[in-house]
Amino acid sequence: MSNASSNVTTERPRSSSDYYNDYRTALTILLTCDFIGFFLVLAINGWLLGSILTSVTLRSKLRNQIICGVAVLHLLEDLLITPFDISYWLAYLNRWNTLKGCAIGDYLTTMIVICTVIPDLLLVILASVFLAQVLDFDPASKLRPRYLRIGHIGILAFPWVFAGVITPLTLVGISHKGFPCLYVNWRRYYIVEAVFTVFPLCLASVIIGMPAVFDVVVTSVSLM
Fold first, then answer.
1. What's this model's pTM, rounded to 2 decimal places?
2. CA 170 from centre of chain
3. What is the pLDDT of residues 132-167, one digit of tens each?
């Protein structure tokens, strides 16, 4: 019995420093992936944007202009969010005190929500353009060039203006009062997120599915 009991090894219970080191290792891996992704996003979206803008034929189409808007959004997100995010967590890993305060956290929260809202609205617009092409609707044949240009500018600018104005006001409105930082009421936040994200995605899905419904209706009417 004494020999059997002596062969049993007991593991040392994990301390808080062990958990912190594991967390530090995982966070370091994530930051390395973010750092690599930063340059990949710049290269891919820069190439896509340059390819479309340098071609007169490609950049004249509204569909490609919307795609350019998505590429610009990814570039801005990469330049305006990722460096601050990486710097924030590097400061946490190294226990620096230079980035403390509410400004960085509020800025990141606001920009992340803005960059989430814009692509969903652009997707709805892109789905609408797809539906117009399927239905052979050509605005150029019905509108003057000046009005057509104004319409294009309005369509492309709407997601940016909407997200840039409504998002900060909404975050302030759903935050608890009396705190120096944006202390968001998460129940209200998820409701707002559903309105800003789930609703546009569902709307885009309905718009994309409408040509198939029209085709079924037309086929059924022709067979009657």
1. 0.73
2. 17
3. 888 888 777 777 888 888 888 898 899 999 999 998
